[in-house]
Amino acid sequence: MLNPRRLGGSALALAAFALAACSGAESTAPLFAGGRALATLQLESPVALALSLNDRWSIASVAWYPPVNGDVSHILVPAEVIEVSDTVRAGVAISIVVNSIGENGCWQADGGTLAQRGDSALVTAYDRHSGAVACTLLWTDRLRHEFTTTFPRAGVGIIRAHGRRARLTDASYSSPIAAERTVVVVP
Question: Rounded CA gap, 172 and 144, in Å?
């Protein structure tokens, strides 16, 4: 959950984002049977986000596929999309956390899958909507999806998290997106 005290002078922009988020229709729940959907890794806002939220693009240790070109001031990403140690040991189990965005209080993390292919861990994260018609208007960028894997040999390990980009103002919009992060694998 975002801490308003850390946002400093950007409270007005955050309020505008919250207002935009609350004023639109539910953005994704009706589209998915059983309320389960690919996790939201990017969320488009109709208004520009606070500068402190846009800093995430410059400090992020992930690459996006497809790449986001141009202005990112309207796109929210989790503070840490992929949480993992920068350096891991070959053959030793490691923890990977993929954080997604809950657009309101009705969304929760709903697991996912991990496929290990040599030096690559391919993660697909899912979120679930409760199905409720009325939801709290609080959103979070910390819906945690926890996974464990092992990289078999020293070198570079790749973690690719698959999810989607959603729009606050368009319930029918959902576009596949992936975040990729590398780790150093030592013997």
Answer: 25
Residue type, 125: A
Beta strands in the chain (DSSP E): 36-38, 40-44, 63-65, 75-76, 82-83, 87-89, 94-102, 107-117, 120-129, 140-149, 155-167, 170-186
Which tokens hold the place of 153? Answer: 């040999």
Q: Is 12 helix (H, G, I), strand (E, B) or coil?
A: helix
pLDDT of residue 34: 55
138 contacts 106 by C-beta, under 8 angstroms = no
**Which segments of the chain does DSSP mark as H helices, in order?**
11-23, 51-59
Q: What is the pLDDT of residues 59-81, one digit of tens each?
A: 668 999 998 877 888 898 888 89
